[in-house]
Amino acid sequence: HARRDGGNVVRYFEPTMLAVIDSRRELEKDLRRALVRDEFQLLYQPVLQIETGRIIAVEALIRWRHPKLGRVSPADFIPVAEEAGLIGAIGQWALHRACLDAASWSEPLRVAVNVSPLQLKSRDFVGVVQSALQESGLSPSRLELEITESVLLSNGDLALAMLQEVRSQGVTIALDDFGTGYSSINYLRRFPFDKIKIDRSFVSGAQANPEGQALVKMIAALGVSLDVSTTAEGVETIEELNAVRDAGCTQIQGYYLSKPLEVDALLELIGDPSLAQAHDQSRRADHV
Ligand code: C2E
Ligand code: MG
Ligand code: MG
Ligand code: MG
């Protein structure tokens, strides 16, 4: 988008709409190839049970290592994947990878995988979950699916039926980013879930903000009365940890505890000696 007007003058123009569409199409093209080129990676962020002080679960968070752009955030490429019809394949990859990884750890941590609402529009979904469990040998009770409230609104019946089916096999369901959607409390009655994840926007600075603290308290109380656990997302400081604990949350996740980690660093953190070793060996084997 630069033009040389003689001499050394380079003029830059505002990107046109066409340019925006162009780069989007470019990204889509690259995304289409990313799976076969093995450019995706899962990082794992630990979740701590406040009462016991133990790490009981990890959330799988996808990363795309683009050959030219470097790390692309899921916030940037997931929406493109959804529009391009690629989220089914990417979601399937993530489920398989997460189940295979978790099945290889000696600590029986639960692994939570984010699921796009679009994945719950396809009837294949139950089969995809089942094949990830079967191929990995992971116990269904160690798999959690994170869905957002928008699923409750947009694709009601099929999504509900599929979630009920996987849940009847022992998979648990977490409501992600709770409080940011528009769902009415009434939807919650219809919906099978085991955990509420309180969005970071309510957790940030909760200790200094009476409204935020009141909301966290209310959601934690809702969790108690519905008999589901409540995870505070995005806990970055000890003050926030104290605030969400006092509000009654049962679990925390956030930079205060740990950033999302590569598998090796996770295994080191949870002290999984057998696996750290197995990884060492496979790494050594790579370099022979
Ligand atoms: P999410 O599921 O709500 O994940 C939590 C996000 O908060 C993650 O961002 C995580 O890295 C970030 N986070 C965790 N603790 C802290 C903290 O203390 N402070 C701050 N500032 N951030 C924190 P990430 O990894 O960039 O993922 C963004 C979103 O992308 C996720 O939000 C999820 O909606 C989506 N996503 C990630 N992986 C997948 C995937 O495999 N499939 C689908 N469909 N969506 C995914
Ligand atoms: Mg999530
Ligand atoms: Mg979330
Ligand atoms: Mg989020």
Automatic annotation (TrEMBL):
Chain ranges of the EAL domain: 24-274
Coiled coil segments of this chain: none
Protein name, as recorded: Phytochrome-like protein cph2
Range within the parent protein: 168 to 455 of 460
